[in-house]
Known about the structure:
alpha+beta; Rossmann fold; Dna Ligase, domain 1; D-amino Acid Aminotransferase, Chain A, domain 1; nine-stranded antiparallel beta sheet; four-stranded parallel beta sheet; globular; binds adenosine monophosphate
Amino acid sequence: MTKxxxxxxxxxxxxxxxxxxxxxLNIKTTIFCDDKNAPAQNYCDNFIFGDYEDSExxxxxxxxxxxxxxxxxxxxxxxxxxxNSQKKVHPKPEINRIIQxxxxxxNFINDLGIKTTKYKLIKxxxxxxxxxxxxxxxxxxxxxxxDGKGQFKINAINDLKNLKIDFKKNFILEKFIDxxxxxxxxxxxxxxxxxxxxxxxxxxxQEQILRxxxxxxxxxxxxxxxxxxxxxxxxxxxxxxxxxxxxxxIDNQDxxxxxxxxxxxxxxxxxxxxxxxVSQFENHLRAVCxxxxxxxxxxxxxxxxxLIGNDILKYRNAKLQDNEFFFDYKKKDIKPKRKMGHLTRIxx
Length: 348
Ligand code: AMP
């Protein structure tokens, strides 16, 4: 039997970990990425470097692969749509159209009767002044913001005088909440009402970048159940195929809010490589390539620490404990705030 050739858009650490997992399942991978130093080229079978809007590269990619998935959600919708007209893309491109835009995403979630923080569309400074009830708040670009990029904290209306905001882009103003905890739920949907779900993962962010993740999350059982229920409802409403991550906030009164949806494998799910019999990456590949769905079980509790910037140097060549697993993303340059690798510890 000829091997399936899976196309993956994006060649960062998520693309790398997908390509590593694909080898185990005997799936070939072709990665298309706009970074010529993309770390995933160390792990895939074919690598195409080029702009995501370059028609020649898109054509070459389509001709090379049997079906397509992606490792990040900010790929131009037109590109996904064009590929999908010839080779199936999972998750389907329409999902990304919603998720790429914070306003569409939050409207979609609220329409399902699921709670988010309060928010309003902001097109000009006076829109902020007219929504004083959302201050203190965070002004976030509707598109292309991640790890805190494109975000401004507004503590008081007076702050606006000092902020230089380019209103060529649309923003949302989101009410700032006192966070008690942040959690995420990773699930892989195979078909209607057919999915594998991981237990909620507790996440700690510093400077808006994920620092550590652990299971079990130290939260009430009701919140564990509700977060899983909401993640399932979201994946069903999106008619999703593959691995998806829903990120949540919990405030001091134990209210649960969806923060955002990632239509892909997620950094907080890295610990599933060592904590479970089937990782989020393997489950994603199984779902998009229509392989068997395996009963996913937890083997260990675990914590994952992101190695950011120079943190990586401490672990390269370090002697690890028996319960420690080190992953070096082999990125070309070490930069502050850049995720360079991660360490997972498992516990009985
Ligand atoms: P985001 O890019 O929207 O996921 O935000 C990155 C991080 O900023 C989150 O993981 C939170 O730690 C923090 N954050 C974002 N929005 C809020 C909010 N409305 N209230 C409190 N903290 C927030």
